[in-house]
Amino acid sequence: MWVDGAPRVACVTPVARVRDRAVTTLEGLEPETAQAWGDSLCETGGSQCGFCTPGIIMRLEAQRSKNDGALSAADVDQAMLAHLCRCTGWQTIREAASLVVSGERRDPWRQRSREGAERRAAIEGGASQQVGAGVSLGRAGFADDTAPADALVAVRSHTGEWVVGETLSEARRRVGKVQGRRTTAPMSWPVDVPEGAWDRVLQTTWVEPAYLEPDASWCEPGGEPVSASSNGGAFGAKQHSEVLRVARTLADTHGRAVRVLYAREDVVRLGPKRPPMAIGLRSDGSGVVRVARTPGAAMLLASFAPQLDVQEVTVVGPPTSNDLRAACWAEVAVALASLGPVDEVRAPEGGWASAELNADGSVRVAVRAGEVLDETVLRSYCIGAAHMALGWVRNEAVSVDAEGEVHDLTMRSFGVLRAVDTPPIEIDVLDGFGPPVAASGAVFAAVAAATWRAAGFPDRWPLTRHG
Asked: Quick one: CATH architecture of 277-454?
């Protein structure tokens, strides 16, 4: 939002600070200005779920006004230091800003197939998706946005009880709050490397999927709870979220509609993480994979790389999930690719990608995803996957202590790559043959492999402690 014309982060601005001042939200922009941003973000793929873009638009429009209509890529990157967008990898947001400044329309939405775009988004995101200019403008219909105005609100206490209030403020006041923190506690690699003489070793640690919209659902008495993944797949992390079950139970208990909301701290403490792993490979591709015990992980790995010995180990820590983007198989794909000269990966879903890091740090990716359906959406998901892979290898991690407690509880503490640190990413979408298949997982693994190769294959990820 703007306060007296200057951008401010709404969620940390107390109401008392804006008394007698002019507050402008996205709805306060001139309609043609808002539409230009919505159209441009849609045209470049600069908005996938749409959760972060209303704030980004307000920040960039304020910067553009300050610059007399100009907005360089460097301006965008600096402005984005106040924001996080996990989906799009920043580059498509830069491109959208350039379109707004120039007034150009390189790929008008009316010339694209909405059905094809939304189908490709659902394939890549793993959940039903909307695509259109309105998504960027906050009209995606997230679960919590659709709840009745008079619904009760339930929030979780640090002891695990659900506290209900007439309003969110009342519920939060009753429950207290576990304040988020960014720890100085050291990282750990909880899965030991298997014994043996290995030509390649890889150990991974706890990684937070870092989706932006916290889990939320609501339900009427006797009804079906609203999906927590409305217009955002959360990289698979919300597939088994408890908020749906809780919403149904509380609605039946209270005889009224109930909204159930996670705080960010709940997401981090309770939400699933990538299973930590330790891999030892010989040059012929044989070896051992040790993985934190996770439902379905051993079966997936046995199917993906049957030549490897898979060992599940019990690890104390937060829950892990095989549903996260390319979880388990990507780590193995990266390790196997490192034994050869080229970083290319075929995903279990059928998508294929190859990647290389150029001398200037830029990333080039080739991708094959069957029938393309909509190249803009496919390209956007691939850029987002490449951005996530760069951060995963280089500096993403959360600290977990010996008792299994997560110590990093803020978005800023996860090591997500900032816009100013994200190199240019070029995506070559190759002609598609056959039915459409998901390809962003293959891109994620291929870029991770290329990033690891460029660093000389150190044994542990992340390569540097974020901070």
From this structure: 2-Layer Sandwich (3.30)
